[in-house]
Methylenetetrahydrofolate--tRNA-(uracil-5-)-methyltransferase TrmFO
Amino acid sequence: MSKTLHIVGGGMAGSEAAWQAANAGLDVVIHEMRPKVETFAHHTGKLAEMVCSNSFRSDDSEQNAVGLLHWEMRQADSLIMAAADKHRLPAGGALAVDREPFSQHVTDTLRALPNVTVVDEEITDLPGEGHWLFTTGPLTSPALGEAIARETGADRLAFFDAIAPIVYAESIDMDVVWAQSRYDKGETEEERKAYLNCPMTKDQYEAFIDALLAADKTEFHEGETAGYFDGCLPIEIMAERGRETLRHGPMKPVGLTNAHKPDEKAYAVVQLRRDNALGTLFNMVGFQTKMKYGAQTEVFKMIPGLENASFARLGGIHRNTFMNSPTLLDEQMRLRTRPNVRFAGQVTGVEGYVESAAMGLLAARFAIAELAGASLPPVPNTTAMGALVTHITGGAEAKTFQPMNVNFGLFPPVDLKGGRKNRPARYKAYTDRAKDDWRNWLTGSAVETA
């Protein structure tokens, strides 16, 4: 049996899968269509390019499901997590990374491996022979998307993902804006001041909402529907759901004290998170948008402290494709109708950088075992990895299947009473159980390919 694994797509999932497979002794061929075939969201041909936020979200492995996923990936020798840790930026309790050196690190590491080959080509069909893992993500090319639809007999599902703007630090008015993480979260002074905060009065907030609702928006093409993923809603959609929605979401003023006016409570706050190690770029947190470019500059300059803002990147909106995985994939992430083909990453209906990489890690380990003539025990659904793979391979309701971030709602319940007041203890019980079960699974799932 050939011990070559072909991976289509060099994003988070594909890069992590390649690392896992190569370290297990497989020959790996990464088929990446960039830079020959471009997408509107990518800017380079590097592997693991970050096209949206630069945040891997919470790094708390005791109280947060995505933090737990970080921990599980580190235990499994994850390349994505190693690169993120090496190039992390201050972000309070979150794991934010310097995106350019991060992707360069992943690219250099994989290209340096003697058993990894990167081929710049577009794959437009599902091969009938060999061992293949498709990790093409939400920006799967139209030709490949059509091939998947032909094979599965299912219409592609779509939602719209919006990109947040990035501001040049030198254009931010620091006489108005102050540095502080919410609730002063973080172990170091740098962490406790990882965010910049732009305060708004009630009148300023109301005027901002009026302008936001009236601004010119990107129009959808014929046949497209606005099935947004709730974890990445454009700010206009949130504002349309109620004038106070933003003030209770990304613009909530809680846990912050204005360093310039400590006795004055802001009605709303726009937060900016550092986007690179130099501190020259800041991401507008939660400000995904589908406003047209001209409208964005006008509306965002209404924010106190950003009146003279210059933007390194404005927001954008794009269509994301994902599969109805519960009906199409088996428990080992193989396509039921073509078991030599696996899928992983966002195209399977997980949402987020870390979740995508995690599914790439698992899919690679399934492939490694198969090529060695072995089979892995089921991944415990008490772990973050297991909860995610269970969700996309049968745990979710197929009729209402939508992209999902990892969360404790996907885990089997723990037997603790007390409601909301006992939440910290309940979350700790989830993570303690998961860590034990993940360690045991890793120990019992080791296979040799040689």
About this structure: The CA atoms of residues 133 and 342 lie 5 Å apart. The chain has two domains: 4-156+323-444, 162-319. The two ends are 12 Å apart (CA to CA). The domain at 162-319 is CATH 2.40.30 (Elongation Factor Tu (Ef-tu); domain 3).
